[in-house]
Amino acid sequence: MERIYLDHAATSPVHPHAAEAMIPYLTDFFGNPSSIHHFGRQARAGLDEAREKIAAFIGASYNEIVFTGGGTEADNLAIIGYARANRQKGNHIITASTEHHGVLNACKLLETEGFEVTYLPVDEYGRISLKGLEAELKDNTILVSIMTANNETGILQPIKEIGALLKSHSAVFHTDAVQALGKHLINVEEMHIDMLAASAHKFNGPNGVGFLYVKQGIELSPILFGGEQERKRRAGTENTAGVIGMYRALEISLEHREARNEDYLSFRNLLLEKLFEADVKYVINGDAPYMLPNVLNLSFPGANVEQLLMNLDLEGIAVSSGSACTAGSVEPSHVLLSMHGENERSKSAVRFSFGYGNTSGQVEKTAQVLNKVLKRMKI
């Protein structure tokens, strides 16, 4: 049985060229990049080159990149680190109700420390209102954190417009770009972004490594305590091989971004077309003009989503739900609840996400299998 992986928004396979680039740093150039001897200098040279390239990819400077253990750590360092270091400037933070839990739970922690957090609502398409954001800004607002693209729906927020709005305010602007980077063009200077979080495994790099862009002059309190790596902003020996794989994967993603996005858009349209031809009832969660091309979130009215996912997996189709499945019960995702409220649409959502290695033939087969499974479930 051919197994078809359509869950690239959860994690993506490591690109062979990225894996190849990592091997020398797992075998020959294995030194600690903080060591001053030959082996350490070899590792440091690779780390420095990767930092310089990654910075250039997003329009940043070399010393503005902090390597982390992934996107969640990057989000935590940006939000918790900035709030704690700048408490004297104010205690108000603004974010959105549909953010990744790496942002939401960091904000919840800060609420226990005396910070006030405003959670902006979203419309039925998952986008915040610029006017709504502007109305919530206060003199004591020190941080605004809005994700570039949602991990469940692929919905893009108006990041450039938010950055422009905040130019006239003292609050710094952080964006979780974990889902977007490599698929959506981002220039931190042009978009007036002060901090940006990214994770390698979303763009065909290895798991367990990411980075945080921090605009020069921004002070952060560390959230890890140990050595003085990453200019005292992130303690712990750098994952040199992982960083090399991340840089190479991002380079490849950006080189092929337009062609890949065209393929992903064609896959999305093909899946919808085949489902329509088969008379499968579905509702799209999101708004096509503001969606990443590789993410498609569909609700299937009347479907038991846990049962649907299990049946698809038995047929070799790997997708994920907009809901958190637990034994015997399904809880709607906070993203869909924010968009649609607690109803059948929020409880019957499935996310299809395309990526490296997918073909139109796999998409057609997915539509056929999905139709068969739904009929078997008598939907």
Q: What labels describe this entry?
A:
13 helices, EC 2.8.1.7, alpha/beta, 379 residues, 2 domains, globular, metal-binding, 7-stranded mixed beta sheet, 16% strand, 4-stranded antiparallel beta sheet, Aspartate Aminotransferase, domain 2, Aminotrans_V_dom, Aspartate Aminotransferase, domain 1, 40% helix
Describe the secondary-structure layout:
Blueprint (H helix, E strand, L loop, with lengths): L3 E2 L10 H12 L10 H20 L7 E4 L2 H15 L6 E5 L4 H12 L3 E5 L9 H7 L4 E5 L13 H8 L5 E5 L18 E5 L10 E5 L14 H4 L7 H16 L1 H21 L5 E2 L10 E5 L5 H10 L2 E2 L1 E2 L1 E4 L2 E4 L1 H7 L3 H4 L1 E5 L6 H17 L3
Helix pairs in contact: 1-8, 2-8, 3-4, 9-13
Cofactor: pyridoxal 5'-phosphate
Protein name: cysteine desulfurase
Organism: Alkalicoccus daliensis
Rounded to an integer in angstroms, the radius of gyration calculated over CA atoms is 21 Å
Instruction: Identify low-pLDDT runs.
Output: 325-329
Shape: globular
Report, as a whole number of angstroms, the end-to-end distance: 25 Å
Mean residue pLDDT? 95
Individual helix count: 13
Q: Could you spell the SSE succession in H and E letters?
A: EHHEHEHEHEHEEEHHHEEHEEEEHHEH
Largest sheet: 7 strands, mixed
The percentage helix is 40-55%
Can you name the CATH architecture of the largest domain?
A: 3-Layer(aba) Sandwich
What is the count of distinct domains? 2
CATH topology name of the largest domain, in short, is Aspartate Aminotransferase, domain 2
DSSP, total strands: 15
Biggest sheet strand order reads 2-8-7-6-5-3-4
Portion of residues in beta strands equals 15-25%
Report the top-level CATH class of the largest domain: Alpha Beta
